[in-house]
Design brief:
By secondary structure, this protein is of the alpha+beta class. The protein has one domain. 50% of the residues lie in helices and 27% in strands. Strands 1-2-3-4-5 form a five-stranded antiparallel sheet. The chain is globular and about 75 Å long.
Length: 161
């Protein structure tokens, strides 16, 4: 019996190229959004991603304190989502913009904005999800809060905005 490994290798290569293309599309959209927000806010911001972990059932502060006192490593469970923060390069002030859950294949991508969940199976749907986030009035309230935090941080450091 003969097995066609070459056919399987080509199929694997095509799938890998699709994943690379999907990830490039997602990263390009995020870079474009980052640039647009920077221009809109007239600030030098960038995005920072950080893993989200499940909340502990007992009091989080007590658990952290206990772990610190007893030198116990904290075993946190990842949710699969990442926080996407807007952050200033100069002062390090940051605010959560949205949550994102990436697929190992690029798409689907889930974007969470407050209680709104957007599932994107394509580049177009991902741009629409990001558009929903930035047109949300709550996002603009967060932008105002972010700018206020920047003013306070710059006053503490003796800078002016």
């Amino acid at each position: 019996m003969s097995f066609d490994f070459e056919k399987l290798l080509k199929a694997g290569e095509e799938a890998a190229n699709l994943i690379i293309n999907n990830n490039n599309e997602i990263n390009t959209a995020l870079m474009e959004l980052e640039d647009s927000i920077s221009k809109f806010l007239k600030l030098n911001i960038h995005f920072e991603e950080e893993k989200e972990y499940e909340k502990e059932k007992d009091d989080m502060r007590f658990g952290l304190l206990r772990a610190a006192l007893e030198n116990i490593p904290i075993d946190k469970k990842k949710t699969g989502f990442n926080y996407v923060y807007i952050k200033t390069k100069e002062l390090g002030v940051r605010k959560i913009l949205f949550l994102i859950k990436r697929s190992s294949n690029g798409y689907p991508v889930t974007v969470v904005d407050g209680k709104n969940h957007y599932n994107a199976d394509s580049k177009t749907e991902f741009y629409e999800a990001l558009g929903n986030v930035i047109s949300n009035p709550q996002t603009h309230i967060m932008f105002k809060s972010f700018k206020s935090m920047l003013k306070l941080a710059s006053l503490r450091e003796g800078r002016t905005q």
